[in-house]
Description:
three-stranded antiparallel sheet, single chain, four-stranded antiparallel sheet, mainly beta
Amino acid sequence: VNSTLVIANDNGTTPVTVANGGSTNDTTPLLSGVVSTAEAGDIVRVYDNISGSAVLVGSAVVLADGTWSTNSTVLATGTHPLSV
């Protein structure tokens, strides 16, 4: 699935988008995106590519408009290269 990936710190009252390569203190950030080639009902999976292995940290159903969102599983403190 070809999708954008937006990571947002949502542990405050207003979600704040985390810049590419940026950081957050939120251990369960909001993950969202837009899929251009999927159909409503398809599943998007987000992986943490830490230590060279892909670990599933979230999945979401694509809506009719191509958008999706989910909160990640709890991430340990540290760097987490995420991908769809």
